[in-house]
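Below is how a single chain appears once it has passed through the pipeline. First comes the sequence as given, then the structure the pipeline wrote out for it. We keep one example in the README because the format questions we get most often are answered faster by looking than by reading.
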Amino acid sequence: MLESMEDQHKRFSNSLQVINRSDSDDLKSSDIKIEVRIQGLYIISNYFPNIEHLPGIIEVDLLDSFKILCRRLSRITDNAGNPNGTVSTEKLPPPK
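Resulting structure:
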């Protein structure tokens, strides 16, 4: 059974972590790194202060990263136990 995107998002939303990996909490610093993590998968985005970002661009990137990770985790769980699957679950921690 295929799961809707909304159901995927609900299922993984409790596992979502957004972590500031920057050297500073100041979003105007020279090195802005934001990690979006769900279980064992993550995306790290870098932002440069000398580029003028549109308001809300970090938030939009976080949402896009969340959606990408949800799709990836859904494919992993859908292919679990399938010897012909293309996604490995070996290094992922068990779901919480």
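The chain has two helices and three strands.

See the next section for the split statistics.
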